[in-house]
Design brief:
alpha/beta; 5-stranded parallel beta sheet; 7-stranded parallel beta sheet; Rossmann fold; binds (2R)-2,3-dihydroxypropanoic acid
């Protein structure tokens, strides 16, 4: 049997690319330049499985291109808000993602942002690199103590819970959360967590608020001017989920007005572009979407996308089917 034809839209870790070459008749993207919409459409006409990632806008035009050959999209990543899932479903295209393997690393990045923004680590490092450090003194760069504070988690799924684990057992933090789904009593008890009735309640109660829900139509600008105003002016906001869950314009205003104490962001509304203020305000820590960026995790993500695609062609149940 001939190998399925695959097109991979970005450069993958070397061991995954070697595996792709063995299992598929694959076209890789050695120069790692993102595909244009036209290139995505052409790819859809020329392969059996497309393996895109978060930077590819797989919209209705791409999914409905004439003479489409693709029936399987093996996404490299857990988030699939860049794929029009409704249209994929309507067009009979199977889509898979790579959950679970990136949970720990994403939670680590959430905790890093939390610690960095609270303890003013970025400011300190910038000062030192600029040769402006004049030495230790009792009132130098005083931040906020993390241990024992309240962490409010919006979206208590895999990553929210992994963050809770770090915060509760590493930093003795009190966990409150909101989630639209029922969370098992065992999980709630494990973290001695409290489920609050509304997102507004979480915003009011947390010393740190972490966004850990998926990006959907319902969560677009979920954290808006009103919710930012509900937060304590000593509280910090953390986002490792998707940029457009927070209204960035309202956020910049809240930071400038000191409505909140600071923010730690790994994701932005229109990546890789972000408002100038998020690069210059001192009470902001920004990372370039590093959540899953460890060698181990990126290899696991590639292998998971491969497993899903193989299962499709071998007519087995997909380990991680989205639609
Ligand atoms: C994802 O997988 O959706 C992340 O944002 C990239 O790891």
């Amino acid at each position: 049997m001939s190998k399925p034809v695959a097109i991979v839209t970005r450069k993958w870790p070397e061991s995954c690319e070697e595996r792709l070459k063995e299992l598929f008749d694959v076209t890789l993207n050695a120069n790692d330049k993102p595909f244009t919409e036209e290139q995505l459409k052409t790819a859809m006409q020329n392969c059996d499985v497309l393996m895109p990632t978060v930077t590819d806008k797989i919209n209705a035009n791409v999914l409905s291109v004439e003479n489409r050959r693709v029936n399987m999209i093996g996404n490299f990543g857990v988030g699939f808000n860049h794929i029009d899932i409704e249209v994929a479903k309507k067009n009979g295209i199977t889509v898979s993602n790579t959950p679970a393997v990136l949970t720990d690393c994403t939670a680590d990045i959430g905790m890093s942002l939390l610690l960095m923004v609270a303890r003013r680590v970025g400011e300190g490092e910038r000062e030192l690199r600029a040769n402006k450090w004049t030495g230790w003194r009792p009132t130098h760069l005083l931040g906020t103590k993390v241990t024992g504070k309240t962490l409010g988690i919006i979206g208590f799924g895999r990553i929210g819970q992994a963050l809770a684990k770090r915060a509760k057992f590493g930093f003795d933090m009190k966990i409150v959360f909101w989630d639209p789904f029922d969370i098992s009593v065992d999980v709630v008890n494990k973290f001695e967590a409290t489920k609050l009735d509304t997102i507004e309640d979480v915003c009011k109660e947390g010393d740190f608020i972490s966004v850990n829900c998926p990006a959907t139509k319902e969560t677009f600008h979920l954290i808006d001017e009103k919710k930012l105003k509900l937060m304590k002016n000593t509280a910090f906001l953390i986002n490792t989920a998707r940029g457009d869950i927070i209204d960035e314009t309202a956020l910049v205003q809240a930071l400038k007005n000191k409505t909140i104490a600071g923010v730690g962001l790994d994701v932005f509304e229109t990546e890789p572009n972000l408002p100038e203020e998020l690069k210059t305000l001192e009470n902001v820590v920004s990372f370039p979407h590093l959540g899953s960026a460890s060698i181990e995790t990126r290899i696991a993500m590639g292998n998971t996308a491969i497993e899903n695609s193989l299962a499709f062609f071998e007519k087995r149940d997909l380990p991680n089917k989205v639609v």
